[in-house]
Structures are given as C-alpha cells and as structure tokens.
Amino acid sequence: MKQVPALKIDGITIAQSLAIIEYLEETRPTPRLLPQDLKKRAQVRMISDVITSGIQPLQNLSVLKQVGQENQLTWAQKAIRSGFNALEQVLWSTAGKYCVGDEVSMADLCLVPQVANAERFKVDLTPYPTISRINKTLMALEAFQVSHPCRQPDTPPELRA
C-alpha cells in the first residue's frame, strides 16, 4: 500500500502499527504494552482500534488527496473532532494516569501521534481535557519525546520540532 509504518525485524517485514506493536509485545514483552487483566486488555485494544481504524485513516495522504486541497483542513478537523468526541467519552471510564489505568499501553502509543495530527490540523483540544491530560503526561516520558512524529528523520521541515 506504500504506507508507513513498516518494521524489518527478525527476518520479516511487518506493516501497520497494531501488527507491529502486537509482534513486539509477543516477542519482546518488556515493557508490557498489553495489560495482564483481560478486561483492561480489551479496553486497550478498543481504544487502539478507535484511533488507528476510526480516526487516523481519514487523515492519510491518499484520502486527503481525494477531498481536494481546498477541503483538506476542514475534512481532517471534522474527522478528528468526531473521533475525539467518542474517544474522550471512552477515556472517562478507562483512564488513570494513561489511557487505561496507570501503565503505558498500546493505546497510549496510538494516542500520541493522533494528538500530533490534531495539532498539525489545528484542532482545538480544549473540549478534550482527558485526551490532553494523558498526552501531556505521556510527552513527559523520554520514550515519547524521542519518538514523537515531529522528531523523525523523514518528517518534512515545516513539521519538525
């Protein structure tokens, strides 16, 4: 599909964020990205899917090209706001320090880049206090600072930190 991310590891190439994260969880389980508790694990997967399947694809370059240059900002903002409205409600019941409880999980790995997209498309985050709080907490962690989308080698200059 000519999309990122893709990871070459252990002699294979894995595409798509959740497949990569789940492979890493299964082959390198420290730190744990899926909770031991099955209900929390389901919540982590649900939040991850809301972000990676319900919000993020609507801002892919291939989709934005289809809506036309003049409509891209409005389209992306509407998609993000709609997704964040639902996500904020879910997080009210699942969040602790992070998306699900007090341990970083796969859901948090999905949240940070989506908030970066929201900022890129100038979405007002004021209506999403839980999303904003969790993102701020995550961004205080070194792993999230160094892996932030604005710090990647292939990030366009205008989007770099």
UniProtKB/TrEMBL annotation:
Statement: the UniProt record of this protein carries the keyword Zinc: no
Entries under Gene3D superfamilies matching the protein: 1.20.1050.10, Glutaredoxin
Entries under InterPro entries matching the protein: Glutathione-S-Trfase_C-like, Glutathione-S-Trfase_C_sf, Glutathione_S-Trfase, Glutathione_S-Trfase_N, GST_C, GST_Zeta, GST_Zeta_C, Thioredoxin-like_sf
Gene Ontology molecular functions: glutathione transferase activity; maleylacetoacetate isomerase activity
Keyword tags: Isomerase, Phenylalanine catabolism, Tyrosine catabolism
GO CC annotation: mitochondrion
Class of the enzyme per the UniProt entry, highest EC level: isomerase
Catalyzed reactions per annotation: 4-maleylacetoacetate = 4-fumarylacetoacetate
Transmembrane segments: none
CDD domains, A to Z: GST_C_Zeta (cd03191)
Limits of the GST C-terminal domain: 37-157
Cofactor needs: glutathione
GO BP terms in the entry: glutathione metabolic process; L-phenylalanine catabolic process; L-tyrosine catabolic process
GST N-terminal domain ranges (all copies): 1-32
Functional pathway: Amino-acid degradation; L-phenylalanine degradation; acetoacetate and fumarate from L-phenylalanine: step 5/6
EC code(s) of this entry: 5.2.1.2
Family of this protein: Belongs to the GST superfamily. Zeta family.
UniProt-recorded name of the protein: maleylacetoacetate isomerase
Species for this entry: Ursus maritimus (Polar bear)
Annotated gene: GSTZ1
